[in-house]
Amino acid sequence: MNFHFLTVWLASSICTLNADWSSDSSSEETMEEHDRTTPTPTETFFALFRVKQKPGETPEDVMKIVENVGHKLDIKHPRQDIVRAYRCVVPYDLVPKPIIVQMPNFTRLNAWAHSYREKYLYKEPWDLMVGIPGDPWCLKRETQNWAETRKYNKVWLKGLDVLYRKKENSTIYRVLDFDHLHRLHNKTIEHNIEITENPLGDTEESSEESSSAAPTDPIIVLYNVRQNVSERKTDVIGIVEAIGHKIDIQNPLQDIIKAYRIRIPIALNPKPIVVHMTNFARMNAWSETYLKKNLFHEPWELIAGLPADPWSLKFEAEHWAEKKKYKQVWVKNRKVLYHKKDNSTVYRVKDFDHLHHLHNKSIERRIEITEKSQQ
Questions:
Q1: What average pLDDT does this structure show over 165-180?
Q2: Where are the alpha helices (DSSP H) in the chain?
């Protein structure tokens, strides 16, 4: 599991760290005003990975680690920027555990991220990565581990929300994000921070099927699969078929609508393989079988769903838009939007799969999604 979280989170962080928040000409004040229109719980967080964790480490020790990183980034008063910092108990399989740091606002978050990028500190034994995972499938998996230790009844997805209940037909609760899940591990405050979900007859079957109405399609992504220079489309299908057999799928090709190397994230090599499945049931079958067989020692990783972080998608869309000489890309209400000229039609980039196909000039106009509301 280590590879997936570091790869996907690293790809996300590279996106955020290299993105120009001010769009080349905007002032810091304009940036802050833009950011306030798109608040989400995780946007003022960054994570420190691969920071050695000593036995008996205290909260003050963690603060000192973050403070020292701040000084290395030439931040004058690091502690003034830290709302809180802690070792996150999730992801379950990642050691040492990441340090999660909350900043007071976007300006200070960007100051740390910008300095890390400008100083080119990627060769340090630690990594600074902006944000915390927003992918619901990863969150669901980690929530299942937590629920098993509590002997809770069930964890499932409804749309993009991770839900759980403690007993059959009992109250349904929602896990907001990885920060929320970290705090839920603390039994003394668990009841104080539970988020009740409005019950709408949620059963495991109906809620899983309802995911089809959400922006996420039944997709699995294969990471770290070796990519040959002369690789053909048929080779990719063969790779997926072989992996299907390895996880004991009887007829893998019957589950696959299409499979291809996605050209994004630009910083990630080898490029991931995106596999469109026939339905959510088959996607879950591949994902659950992979987990049960405990194949984490394999050089490749199988993950259900595309990355859901809008800032990663924004960065990738900016690179595409620059090549097209389009005017602007921005985020509003967690949607990635763009327009080609000043005051022209506003379009939306749905997800990484959609952006991959937008790179194809011959079909771009046919797959554009017009956004009804303007900026």
A1: 91
A2: 2-18, 28-36, 59-72, 78-81, 106-118, 136-150, 178-184, 187-193, 204-210, 233-246, 252-255, 280-292, 310-324, 352-358, 364-367
